[in-house]
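Risk mitigation, structural track. In case the binding assays with cytidine-5'-monophosphate fail to produce interpretable data, a predicted complex structure has been prepared as a fallback.
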Amino acid sequence: MELNKRHIVLGVTGGIAAYKAAELVRELQRAGATVQVVMTRAATHFVTPVTFQALSARPVFVDQWDDRIGNNMAHIELSRSADAILIAPASADFIGKLANGLCDDLLGTLCVARECPLLVAPAMNRQMWSNPAVERNVAQLRQDGVTLLGPDSGDQACGEIGLGRMLEPPAIVEELVAFFAPRLLAGRRVVVTAGPTYEAIDPVRGITNRSSGKMGFAVARACRHAGAEVHLVAGPTALPTPAGVTRSDVQSAREMCDAALGACAPGCDIFIAVAAVADWQVTNASARKLKKDEIGSTPELAFAENPDILQTVAGLPNPPYCVGFAAESEDLARNGESKRRRKGVPLLVANIGHETFGLDDNELLLIDEQGTKPLGRASKDELARLLVAEIAGRIGQPVAEDAK
Ligand code: C5P
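Fallback model:
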């Protein structure tokens, strides 16, 4: 779990989005974090401390003068073991308080007395968000090294539409995971292909495969967490786009090839081909739906080989660092190595065992010039993280983020 052993102080301030903070506690726990909730008095008008106490299995603190902490130093004690303080939702009032270092309640004092990072997820009406005083306070927070998460744009509780609503709890957790991840690919530009391709036979029928896209999406997400700018070229899949990743949706192998070459063109550093690309396309695809009674017999399909996207990118004049994936059923290391050489790539990742399609976990073996290295069996997210570390180790030092 990506927030394993992380202890988060969740500060809940007074805004209607406070109801979402209850779900946020659950999401943080699902990701492995422990959560200590501290509320402002205003927040208790929206959700009671009992709700958070039940969800977090810890006493909830509101009052600066709470004597449940023996030395009466709740403002010091509560943040000492924290890896981060996360304020969600952060009201305009509380942002103003933070920007000025005010300590007139427990949460404000806790933030001023902290030794850990502070992350803030604003939640307010669009007019409040664009108010010059709020803008000034937000700018001050950024200058003070506070990390702003969102806000999002969309429907607001007041019935208006615009910028200011709190990021959804899963998106906040995603940002937190990225915040803690080592920035091994900071300043790097990465292109990832993922999912199956779809080769049309006629407007309603086609040839595809059982790739779910999960491994490729996990790789894109891990690259993003590591600080890279990521472009994901995805075949047909219903998976949601990982936060902060640019996505191009394609159908056929040719479209995937064009999209991948386009995405690689302006200075891509790393190309990771995870997609299960169809080897052949149908050259006599019909523009109209094939009808049984019109054809009279079984249709004859003609095929032509698809471009090998990975090989094409690896053969570019100034190629990015290329990583291929392979599903080999036998003699993994030997067949993998010959595939690696044939495609002209420095690193090939072999799926151990053929049945990984659609599953949440996988087992991988790395094959490069030095030989093989097993990554073991784990979730696709965990393997993606390990793979990112391996790639980062092979391409050398991360470039400074402002050096590109
Ligand atoms: O040759 P094979 O399909 O086993 O190679 C698998 C690797 O090559 C994967 O990384 C896959 O994404 C890539 N590939 C490609 N274009 C193709 C076929 C495979 O990029 N037409």
